[in-house]
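Much of the work behind modern protein science is quiet bookkeeping, done one molecule at a time. The protein below has been through that process, and both of its lines are reproduced in full.
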Amino acid sequence: VEQIDVQIAKSSLRAPFAGKVSRRFLDEGAYASPGVPLLELLEAGKPEIRVGLPAEAVASLKPAARYPVELGGQRFEAAVLRVLPALDGSTRVVSVLLDVPAEARGLALPGMLAQVEMVRTLPEAGFRVPISALTR
């Protein structure tokens, strides 16, 4: 009985989080080599938006600040959850995770594209002139 319990424990898969299987890479009864993915899991918790921002734009982000986001043709504001501490080697951007608010959770599907709107102020030398000084 103990040997069967060990065999069952070695042949069972347990996810570290609640989710849904979105893709199966191997069929039942197939042999799996170490390091080969068997399933693709989608987390069932709150959805997050991952955006890539240039490193200089990340420096101006404020924790928990809300930024305008467009997702599935709808606009809403999403709060910054966290900034991942590494630069992506292939895209040269820093990943930022944003929280999807409750009113937009029905719109968020894994793999969808989202656009985040950020305003950056660039200091430039200049001067002001009155409108009366301008001509056609």
